[in-house]
Amino acid sequence: MWSLVQGKFIDPNGEEFVRTFVRSPGAVGVVALVGEKGSRKVVLVRQYRPPLGITTLEIPAGMRDLEGEAPELTARRELEEEAGLIAGSMINLGRHIAAPGISNSSVDLFLATDLKETKTDRHGPEEEFMTIELIEFEKCMAMIKSGEIVDGKTVIGLLQVVLLADTYI
Question: In which element (H, E) is residue 129 found?
Answer without folding.
Answer: none
